[in-house]
Amino acid sequence: MVDIRSEHDIETVRQVAILLDNENGRLVEMVKKLRLENAALQGRDPSTLQLELDLAQELLAKQNRSLFGRSSERRPGADGAAAQGNPSPRKGHGPKAQPALPVVEQVHDLPEADRGCTVCGGTLKPMGEQAEESEEISVVERRFVVVKHRREKYRCACNGNVVTAQAPPRLIPGGRYSLDFAVEVASDKYLDHLPLERQARKMSREGLDADSQTLWDQISALARVLHPAYEALEREVLLADLLYADETYWPQASKGNKACRHWAWLKASADTAFYQILDSRSKVAAEVVLKDYGGIVMADGYAAYDALARGAPGFTLVHCWAHARRKFVEAEPNAPEVCRPVLDMIGELYAVEREVPKPGPGAADDQVQGSLDLRAKLRSERSTQIVRRIQQWVYEVRPGVLPQSGVGKAIDYMTGIWEGLTRFLQDPRIPLDNNHAERALRGMVVGRKNHYGSRSLRGTQVAALFYTLFETAKLRGVDPKAFVRDLAAKALEETATGAAVREMAPGAITG
User: Rounded distance, CA 260 to CA 454, Å?
Assistant: First the structure.
């Protein structure tokens, strides 16, 4: 008998899991048969009992999928090719062009000893410009250097005035680390999700002796310099006609080094993402995030947004079709025939949206308006009819499913936010889903997995600031590291006291 608690061979564990799954299926069928016989003896309605048994089997299958299945919202195609393990063939890929990389030419000469002709015994000579060329991508390791700043002194012949050339501004007065160094550390942590301890070990291999506390001091100082830009981005994002809102948990170490759950809140426009990390997910926290915003808010079905929308000054709350679809995707394995029609109809809504070209960043106003006009026309002509068909499907299917089943819960969720789901039909500015916000939260999700959130309240503030700046840069199509460095350099320049430090010669001031 195999003890799976101590078994480490993957194939053996897999075979045991298959046998257990088959045995579970056999036992479920036996229980269903016995319960039906018992219900008949008690005079109960067999159809009601059958629904209850189907629900139990659905819960068991869902548990098995959570343990052994892959997490994905992709569905098999109409022909079932994906389900049969026959996906469409992948397209080949060759070497990618790298126009942004500098080209370093390296000439390979034939050694003198190999320049003898093997035919006549003569000497091989270069063939003019003839050569064989090939390319390879290589890497030049980064280097840490000590930059010595020599500030020249100047004086007048009267010896009454001495001027020293100005030094570059520093994040920390008298500190040893440059602005570029701090930006490098911040981008490695909040853009590439590399914890500070790991950065310190990597730097040690590259010749720099610096601990994680030193690295933290640099990014904390950089965050103080960038805080006005962070506040300006919040004011800017609240001016947008439409906001995407979402939240995810964020761990923060508390006393005893135990993690407590905070929440990372996001409000985003088309080109700006702004994050705040708060200690709750309550309506009060949502009010702190959205302030007195009065435009359109795209969100999921979380009740805090609905409560704020009903208050004053209030905003127009719209809901996400991707979240509604996700509920039916989760229920589909246990009720494929029931879920397939509604999933196909939601797919039709997205097909209509794909027919509208999306203006890129910086598009002209007439191009944006033309896109909105086309979207309004297509929604009026086609999407409205699709939504009516979805509503009719709900009326037909709902009486025949248990409320506790996956399909029943999916229907309850969709109908509970139906008003917000259908508002897109009246306003072409409203998107179908909140995927823009979910994409913007991916960086924070990866970051919390890699460096386990923050160690302090200050850490949550710094994390929110840098995620705001880096994700905003990505939305605007600019280099995130250069974006942050330019903002910091301008902030330091604005706080500089002058072009030079003036020193008075001894005795120059009298009286």
Answer: 10
Structural contact between residues 299 and 317, judged by C-beta atoms closer than 8 angstroms: yes
- Residue 52 structural domain: 10-60
pLDDT, residue 409, reads 93
Q: Which residues pair with 165 in a beta bridge?
A: 500
Q: Predicted confidence band at 10 (pLDDT cuts at 50, 70, 90)?
A: confident
Of residues 362 and 308, more confidence is placed in 308
- The count of structural domains within the chain is 4
- In the numeric block, which tokens belong to residue 320? 């996400």
Q: What is the DSSP string of 265-297?
A: EEEE-SS-EEEEEES--SHHHHHHHHTT--SEE
103 part of a folded domain:
no
Regarding predicted confidence, which is higher, 464 or 506? 464
Q: In what order do the strands lie in the sheet with 259-268?
A: 273-278, 259-268, 242-253, 296-299, 316-319
Closest CA to 505 of 9, 32, 156: 156
Please check whether residue 75 is in contact with residue 332, taking contact to mean a CB–CB distance below 8 angstroms. Answer: yes
CA distance 398 to 387: 16
Q: How far apart are CA 268 and CA 275, in angstroms?
A: 9
Tell me the two tokens of residue 444. 């924070």
pLDDT tens across 242-264, in order? 999 999 999 887 666 666 889 99
Verify that 215 and 309 share a domain, yes or no. no
Could you give the percent of the chain with pLDDT greater than 90? 50
Q: Residue 177: how many CB atoms within 10 A of its CB? A: 20
| Average pLDDT value for residue range 212-226 | 95
Q: How far apart are CA 65 and CA 408, in angstroms?
A: 19
303 and 374 belong to one structural domain: yes
Which is nearest to 300 in space by CA: 276, 274, 281, 279? 281
* Same structural domain, 292 and 231: no
| Sign of the torsion angle spanned by Cα atoms 232, 238, 242, 243 | positive
Helices (H), 158-299: 179-190, 196-205, 212-237, 283-290
Q: Is residue 73 part of a domain?
A: no
Q: In terms of domains, do 335 and 466 share one?
A: no
User: Is the same domain home to 384 and 423?
Assistant: yes
DSSP state, residue 364: -
On whether residue 268 sits in a domain, the answer given is yes
Q: H or E stretch including 356?
A: none
Give the predicted TM-score (pTM) of the model.
0.78
